[in-house]
Amino acid sequence: xxxTFAIPAPLEPGDVVAVVAPSGRFPAGDLWRGLAWxxxxxxxxxxxxVFECDGYLAGNDERRRVELDRALRDPDAKAIVAVRGxxxxxxxxxxxxxxxxxxxPRWIVGxxxxxxxxxxxxxxxxASVHGPNVTGLGPQAxxxxxxxxxxxxxxxxxxxWRGLRVLHRGQGGQARGPLVGGNLSILHAMAAAGRLAIPxxxxxxxxxxxxxxxxxxxxxxxxRVGEHLAQVSAIVLGGFDRCVPGPDGRTAEDVLAERxxxxxxxxxxxxxxGHAPHNEAFVLGQTARVEDDAVTLAAGGA
Length: 302
Known about the structure:
Helix 8 runs parallel beside helix 9 (252-260). It contains nine helices and 14 strands. It is α/β, with parallel strands linked by helices and 302 residues long.
């Protein structure tokens, strides 16, 4: 598994962006608001099929697979942005032309269920952007939109998350490596499918939503027993939103701290990404550095 990643060309105003719906169905109004903001800066390509529904999915597997396949092969599209997460990307991720994106890298942008596409992209050696989906861009605060633009237009520019909570210092509170990760539930599912490959020395970013603490325990324990966490150099935790404790009172952060202690690496919590309204975009595959309570993104390039 490689530890360096190809960085796609930065987006510029006027570039072509393909909008796709690889996962769950969504409210049409949320899409229109997000598209209105994107259209103010980029040329958009979107298939009317995104409005199809198949139960909880944005159309059947074939529709979503063909749409993504076309976007990955589109010679003009410099980015592929997901409409929303939900569920569904894992059903089609293995059938996509990852060789095409490896030969001509372009950005895959999204989060939550889109983590499945990110994991496949970093297996192919391509950086991608963990950040708001199209339906989340309409109501976002200016700072979140600015972070989204910075991630796709200035991907190698350094940024710093400061003042994070130090759960464990590890060996000296410092680490450096490629930043990968995303939604814990999806990474757990990718591991079960034999499709999770965390690079040696990686800094692992994790977030989740509406998962009971005992389920977070189960997923982290499975990843540890399967040795998927054996070579990480640090863990950075974003939001674990609406992960409500049970009658025992044990919180998600209690579980995260306990289950990562024996790894012997720095573990920081409170990074500004996840399912809460404040969800800052960042580049997966770039080099990051952990020092005490701060994470420097694009630390010396990727």
